[in-house]
Fold this protein.
Amino acid sequence: MPGAEAQVDLSLIALFLHAHFIVKLVMIGLAAASVWSWAIIINKTIALRNMARSMDEFEDRFWSGQSLDELYRGLAEKTNDGFAALFIAAMTEWRRAFEGSGRGFASLQTRIDKVLDVSISREVERLESKLLVLATIASVGPYIGLFGTVFGIMTTFRSIAASKNTSLVVVAPGIAEALFATAIALAAAIPANIFYNKFVRDAGKIQGRLESFADEFSAILSRQIDERAGAMQNRGAA
Amino acid sequence: MAQKLDTLRSLLDWRQPGGLVSVTGHAAMLIVGLAAFSSAKPFMPAQEGVAVDVISEREFNEMMKGDKKGEKRPEPQARAESVAETRRTNEPGTAKKDVAAEPARAEPPKAEAKPEPQRQVAALPPPPVRPPELKPVMRPPEPKPEEPPDEKAEIPTPPKRPDPRPEPKKEELAKLLEQKQLEDKRREEAKAAEEKRQAEENQKAEEKKRADERAAAERKTREDREKREREAAEAKRLEDAIRQRLLTSREAPSSTGATAAQVSREASLGAENATGRRLTPSERSQLIGHLTEQMNRCLSIPPGAIPRSKPIVALTLGRDGSITSGPTLTNPMNEPGYMPYAEANMRALRNCAPFKIPERFMATYEDWKSLRIGFDPSEMQ
């Protein structure tokens, strides 16, 4: 790091430019990780809020007494998430049972349950996508920053030993730029950790709501199946 | 590849603005950081607080122990905390600047005594010796510039008059030597005439000198008298001025500590009782023994039951052995005969009050000045 002593410039740019090549790489990587984690945080927040809102809306409509077929027709053309996605998947299965041979009642209930499970897991996967990145940045970021700091201090001490001068004026700039790496790492990791915890909890809550809705809906459909099956038997008997 | 393009496209998607917002946010943070960390603020030197300790009298004494190796200097110096100022101020009431007449006040008797004999001498001895002697002696004592020129003007006159005497004599002798054989008679006559004339001249000169002297003496006495009067007036004026000044002064009396030409650097030798020494147990019992011994002379135990328990009395002693506070009973009890016994002891203490305390206990006064003495009733039996 030649020229470090010539003029003590302590701006952020100067700290970055004086640092060792590897420390520079670490800093750049950590800055990129910070950008990425914040992008994920913002997108996730918006996505979770949208999902919660659409689920509330769907719940209102579902319990408003509208007939299921009408509701299905209204939603079939749109891309759906949350309850609507579950509803559409189950209804599609239901309708398919009646449209085709018309005699697939025996295992319709199990099929609907399966479809509901699959769509729940798909929704949850969508909710939890990219949370792994946040978790990784939160847990590994400080280590990377620490590595940068240790490396920076190492090079600083080596240059101190080479210059045979131990005054604090010589030592301080090198240590400051080494610590800068840890500062960036902590700045990236702390929000990543906080929001990771928040998102995991939110996703768990939504998953719980989806599962309870799936159970409820499956119960409604099973009643319908039984009623129709009874009606058909009556018709057959008559 | 397609996925990468997807993620890039997602950056520009309005439903997922996270990427864009994050990048701009970080750029803004970087700019703010550059502004905030553009220069490091140097440390301000910290101001140290003054630590204050609360210490007891004994600790203070221990601190005042002084230098054990310090030696007493043979010649004691006046203690001075600072170097005295050498600024000179004139006394109040006089002129602020020195005038030529001022210093004369201090030494008028010398000035009067000296010039007089010299003036008398000045008239008598041969002229060549006088002027160099007079000049240095006369000048300093005579404060006024007017007087010396007067005397100088007077003094040179006498040498001129006697001067012609030897000169004509020499010439005549030369002449006589030449004309000795030829004009014996004339020479005799001339010599007689000359001598006569000379005698007259001498007489005249003597008279004049005497007159001069008399005049000088008169003037001198007059001057002295004037001077004395002037000085007396001045002294009176000065006294009045000082009195006036003191009466009208509203300054608070103040002292700035002892001053001298030099600050004394001698190590303080410490006080006698500065070792913080405490009484040893045996010394303490000795002291109490001394006290009770003296006290027993005044003790008269009232007849009655002698208690079993031992009254303990607290008192404070002065250096001279007097009781400065107390005695007070520290353990009052209900036992029969106890209170009369304790009262009798305290009365005895009070009555024998200035106790004689041996000199060797003086160094440990701080330790024994407040004492607790127990009166063992078993010793009474």
Notes: Chain A has one domain: 12-237. Confidence is low (pLDDT under 50) at residues 1-7 of chain A. The radius of gyration of chain A is 30 Å. The interface with chain B takes residues 10-13, 31, 34-44, 46-47 of chain A (CB under 8 Å).
